[in-house]
Amino acid sequence: xxxxxxxxxxKMHGTIxxxxxxxxxxxxxxxxxxxVQVVVCPPFTALALVSEVLSGSPIQLGxxxxxxxxxxxxxxxVSIPMLAEIGCRWTLVGHSERRKEIGESDELxxxxxxxxxxxxxxxxxxxxxxxxERRQGLTFTTVExxxxxxxAGLGGDQIAKTVLAYEPIWAIGTGVNASPAQAAEVQGxxxxxxxxxxxxxxxxxxxxxxxxxxxxxxxxxxxxEPEVDxxxxxxxxxxxQSFIGxxxxxxxxxTATKE
Length: 259
Ligand code: PEP
Prior knowledge:
46% of the residues lie in helices and 14% in strands. The protein is of the alpha/beta class. The mean pLDDT is 96.
């Protein structure tokens, strides 16, 4: 069984004061989450503080991106050892907003992923198609290209330590989530590719999250899909009660339906 995983991506939201309050409320509302793993990804400026707030709590800390080199002349970047130093062990890689706004290429994403794995982090590789690609019947082609390039050169043991997130771009921040069937179809396809790239056994252990307008109200039906192993949550992770609601649904479904 794959333990459900819920990740909150705070994006570029939260002053130190707001981050302290949000992290504290999530920590207090999820003292002993059972049957689910929880990660929050605050902006860089709040990571150290949130690390302190979450200290001793089962909620883990993630970054939204990183640089692939350990140090150097890379103005504005943050390295993996810097993240490790403040208790961070997870990082999102290849979020569509970074692919689009910063121009992150599949090659760069692959470099980051390899560096993260070498340094004991869990990378969360994000893939997903645009609305236009879906209209043109290119959904599988797009996500397959992103997956193959992102995982290029990795051995089965490294793929086993990676988490995938299927995030259709048309569903991110729009309030229009993929239907459970749409998510399951693409995620099943991704798992098939993992069987080919690693092995059938490893593919069965890798968690594939769904992301795109997940809220407490739609989490249950999405997470009930056997192919959906959790959620990557943007907007709804900025409200402690909404995020806790999603985590509780994931925990319930993980321990009941999918066992
Ligand atoms: C995201 O950006 O990863 C995301 C899924 O955002 P939202 O939940 O707001 O759609």
